[in-house]
Amino acid sequence: MIGTGVLRAEWTKFSSIRATMVLAPASVAVAGMLGWLFGNATAGDYAVATAQERLDFQPLEMGMRGLYIVQVLIAALGVLIVSSEHGGGTMRASLAAVGRRGHLLAAKAGLTVMTALPVSVASVWLMYVTSQSTLAAGGASHMTPGEPAVLRMLLAGPLVLTALALFGLSLGFLLRGTAPAVNVSTAFLLLPLFATIAPDFMNGLLEVYWPNVAALQVVSGASPLPAWAGYGLLAGFVAAMLGAAFVHFGNHDA
């Protein structure tokens, strides 16, 4: 068990880093901006769409496309929670204070969840409000909060983003540097965007089974997989990454 004192110490270190204090509100602000941008562009497309295209129109999926950018910022937040200590040379002092590496990793994972979850909730909800209100203002089809698909987005979307913050945390432990960990997480999360130019044997992997895509597609209602499979792929991947981080952290000098 990790004590509240360890979590308070982790929060003190986290809140003293300017980059993290800027990145958290910036993620929410970017989410709102992307919701408006995609909502505005989609409303324009709807205005000139044919009758069949309007029947096939998916306002929630189209308006929330900015999540594929916001996920990168949330993952970077997880990276900073650990990489800032490696960069600042304070990891040894943290280990000396906590005593056990597993407890320190668990404390940082707990802090990641407590930090990323509210940021993710604010980001997803603001993106939904801005995108759907922009669609409505443009005369396009939109979705209201009481609809099941919207509830799934508002409740499950933040959990998916928080899991990706834990993915970023694990990369911070594995790569021990902000720049390499952020670069790797960004490349990994955005690689599926290039599925259309990938070889045929990779299309299915990138478009359906890639962990973050599998979960985000379930959240948006566009997945060919059942919900348990989409969420399970991401959960299993993040658990494996955290396990690798635990082993690496335990077997290498701080």
TrEMBL record:
Key words of the record: Membrane, Transmembrane, Transmembrane helix
Protein name per its UniProtKB record: ABC transporter permease
Domain of life according to the entry: Bacteria
Ranges annotated as spanning the membrane: 21-39, 66-84, 105-129, 149-175, 187-206, 226-249
Keyword Transmembrane helix: yes
Keyword presence, Glycoprotein: no
